[in-house]
């Protein structure tokens, strides 16, 4: 996806430092969860980045597969100077296209940015989003995002103030 001012592309390992720099202020504000550098390298293939025409990384987002039909939009962030310019929407659209290509039909996110995700077709969710037999398998995952989706007690301190949202593709 390309716009005159920026391009959305697959992340590369050389983008990890810039991704971490971009999200550091959001981690400090407890808007995003901090992750070790190794986690970014391990999941770099899940990331898309927005790159300005001068080569500066101005946004990022990741798609993490959680189940056969379910994925999570993670670490969606846009540089402050680029907020309100469509970068976040372009990243989200690319992640949704990736999800469809993978065969996913639902996308989850845990966010403080309820209005942004609502404008993009997401709705807040409560309990009972998945079948009990699938729940019993997913609860075995060590992934924090899965725990957040399942609303497990052990991740409650990470989720305070966040909204759990879902979109059907």
From TrEMBL:
Listed Pfam families: Acetyltransf_1
Domain N-acetyltransferase stretches: 6-143
Keywords for the protein's UniProt record, in alphabetical order: Acyltransferase, Transferase
One of the record's GO molecular function terms: N-acetyltransferase activity
Any one of the GO CC terms: cytoplasm
InterPro entries per the UniProt record, alphabetical: Acyl_CoA_acyltransferase, GNAT_dom, NSI-like
NCBIfam families per the UniProt record, alphabetical: PRK07922.1
Listed PANTHER family: ACYL-COA N-ACYLTRANSFERASE (PTHR43626), GCN5-RELATED N-ACETYLTRANSFERASE 2, CHLOROPLASTIC (PTHR43626:SF4)
Protein's recorded name: N-acetylglutamate synthase
Upper taxonomic lineage: Bacteria, Bacillati, Actinomycetota, Actinomycetes, Micrococcales
């Amino acid at each position: 996806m390309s716009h005159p001012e920026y391009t959305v592309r697959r992340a590369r390992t050389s983008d990890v430092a810039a991704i971490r720099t971009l999200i550091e202020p959001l981690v400090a504000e407890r808007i995003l969860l901090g992750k070790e550098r190794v986690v970014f390298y391990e999941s770099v293939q899940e990331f898309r980045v927005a790159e300005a025409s001068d080569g500066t990384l101005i946004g990022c987002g990741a798609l993490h597969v959680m189940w056969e039909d379910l994925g999570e939009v993670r670490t969606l962030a846009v540089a402050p100077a680029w907020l309100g310019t469509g970068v976040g929407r372009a990243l989200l659209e690319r992640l949704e296209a990736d999800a469809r290509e993978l065969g996913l039909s639902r996308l989850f996110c845990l966010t403080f940015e309820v209005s942004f995700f609502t404008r993009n077709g997401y709705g807040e969710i409560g309990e009972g989003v998945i079948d009990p037999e699938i729940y019993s398998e997913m609860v075995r995952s060590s992934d924090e995002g899965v725990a957040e989706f399942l609303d497990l007690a052990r991740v409650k301190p990470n989720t305070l103030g966040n909204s759990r949202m879902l979109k059907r593709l």
